[in-house]
Amino acid sequence: MPWIQIKLNATKENAEMVSDMLMEETGALSVTFLDAKDTPIFEPLPGETRLWGDIDILALYDAEADTQFILSQIKASGMLAEGFAHKVEQLEDKDWEREWMDNFHPMQFGERLWICPSWRDVPDPEAVNVLLDPGLAFGTGTHPTTALCLEWLESIDLAGKTVIDFGCGSGILAIAAIKLGAEKVIGIDIDPQALVASKDNAERNGVAEQLHVYLPQDQPENMIADVVVANILAAPLRELSPIIKGLVKPNGLLAMSGVLDTQAEDVANYYRDELHIDPIKAQTEWCRISGRKQG
């Protein structure tokens, strides 16, 4: 069935209260926050809801909902300015999951690596193919940060190497590393659902025995690897730099992404004391920082 969507503008000071009011008093089925100024939003810390300065709120209602009553309730709440801006739209009903699946196509990284949705045929059976069902966790290859890391992994010799995927998400980088020749890969993530997704995707690709996943508190002590990849965000890359550097063997390789071009030099400086940093690689506004640990 179709739906009604009401779009409102709010601020970070009142967005949470407006959201609660829409759910509790107007019967909204869901409420979504969008950045009204296209400002990048970064992954919040556990338990934190991080908002933008100016926020568009999208409230979804059943098509039979009385929009005039809803707008009168919003006005009566006094949470938004008199004559508040709003937009009412009717949304057609779609099979959103099927539409997303239809638009997720196989993607090539470097010369020999393909990331293929598990429901599509692989374009080149002789290539290195990773079959991916994103499922519960981040990482499909469509985001520039993942693409930058996949291209880097494809460009280096992983034969017989041990690799750590720090913030493994869906397991896309870990599985690609195994398919590219790594002997053993360790995936670490703070989200238990990411570990489930990584193991499921590893099973689908027939590499589950080579992938070992851990929550940070459960990982083996004194763990080090020939190659470490960390596709997370600038803040944790800075905060956790001593831990991440400690995972890399002498003369080992490290690549990091999830960093905007305005943050890249600052993040790289946290690693220059122990690594020789390569020229920073950019794709759109996102960057990859890579380097070799000093012997």
UniProtKB/TrEMBL annotation:
Pfam families: PrmA. S-adenosyl-L-methionine binds at T146, G167, D189, N231. InterPro entries: Ribosomal_L11_MeTrfase_PrmA, Ribosomal_PrmA_MeTrfase, SAM-dependent_MTases_sf. The keyword ATP-binding does not apply. CDD domains: AdoMet_MTases. One of its GO terms (biological process) is methylation. Gene3D superfamilies: Vaccinia Virus protein VP39 (3.40.50.150). GO terms for cellular component: cytosol; ribosome. It is found in: Cytoplasm. It comes from the Bacteria. The keyword Methyltransferase applies. It catalyses: L-lysyl-[protein] + 3 S-adenosyl-L-methionine = N(6),N(6),N(6)-trimethyl-L-lysyl-[protein] + 3 S-adenosyl-L-homocysteine + 3 H(+). Its EC number is 2.1.1.-. It is an enzyme of class 2 (transferase). SUPFAM superfamilies: S-adenosyl-L-methionine-dependent methyltransferases. GO terms for molecular function: protein-lysine N-methyltransferase activity. Keywords: Cytoplasm, Methyltransferase, Ribonucleoprotein, Ribosomal protein, S-adenosyl-L-methionine, Transferase. Belongs to the methyltransferase superfamily. PrmA family. Methylates ribosomal protein L11. This is Ribosomal protein L11 methyltransferase. It comes from Vibrio scophthalmi LMG 19158.
